[in-house]
Amino acid sequence: MTQPIPPQPPELAPVFQEPTPPAAPAAPTPADMPATAPAAPAAEPRQVKTDWTPEEATKVIGELREENKSWRKKYGEAEPIIKAHEAAEDAAKTEIERATERAAAVEKANNDLITEVIAAKYGVPEADYDFLGTGSREEKDAKGARYAARFAPSSTPTPPPSDRPVESLRPGASPTPPAAPDTSYPDSWRPKPRRDRT
Hints:
mainly alpha
């Protein structure tokens, strides 16, 4: 006796499909590209026309004006479309996104204000605001104190210039010359006086 073959589940049943055409080749990725680009054919250097007649120049200028006119017209037609697209994007934003943007703008303004207050407190010039960096008010305050300590003026300021003459000042502001060497006759070489002369 022969037993019947049980039916196959649908997943294993052969499926007859029409053959599909081969897929189009995928776009090459940078990894598939050759390391060196093929050399471009040597292009002939363009000749620039320098001997224009007034009629030729007028003709070229007219062509350029027409081209410019067509571009202005295309821009004028596209401008309302762009504005409508921007309005649609803005309307599509949720209330949470708008609130997030407003909060970020307020936070940035607050951060800038704190930076300006601390800079004014410690005398940090605007060019050095980036020295204060970002962070909390306390962190910026500590950085401002460090900046002020580093660039504090010296404790003894130089006196202002005066027109009053100074007694010991010599012309030319030359240094004090060295003492002249003693070339006199030493006392130990002097002859002893004769006492017995009478």
